[in-house]
Amino acid sequence: MPALDEERVKDKEMSEAREQGKDQGKGERHETKAMTRRKFLSNVATSSAAVAIVPRRVLGRGFTPPSDLLNIAAVGVGGMGRANLINLASQNIVALCDVDWDYTNKGFERLDADIRKLQERMSVPDASKESRELDPLKAKGRLDGMIKLQT
Length: 151
Hints:
- The chain is mainly alpha-helical.
- The chain folds into two domains: 32-63, no CATH class; 69-151, no CATH class.
- It is built from eight helices and two strands; from the N terminus they run αααβαβαααα.
- α4 (80-87) links the parallel β1 and β2 (92-97).
- The N and C termini lie far apart (84 Å).
């Protein structure tokens, strides 16, 4: 029977401790301010915008801030879409979609040959009418876009 007495003593001590805790809690009120979902989302949006809009002087010269780049998703990248992708290669291309990937892959395989042709055309100054129409700045930009799209 001594084990039964020990259990009663422990139960009594635990109930007294609980009552003391309740008594102490009555005098002190701990109120926590709950953050609403709306407030949380506005805080997240504000901090995300602050990180995304980085001034150019913070990044240094030669770096493009994320706020100056567009995310491009291209649909139909086989024919004219390939030319558009080359023109937009300086932006952030995030997705490509096409119905006929065989035709699209052939177009991207021709990219190596197109790069070589443009490099040859830029390197050889020719007096012909065709080379006079070639703007070196535009050709350099297009070549950079083609190389970036290739990788």
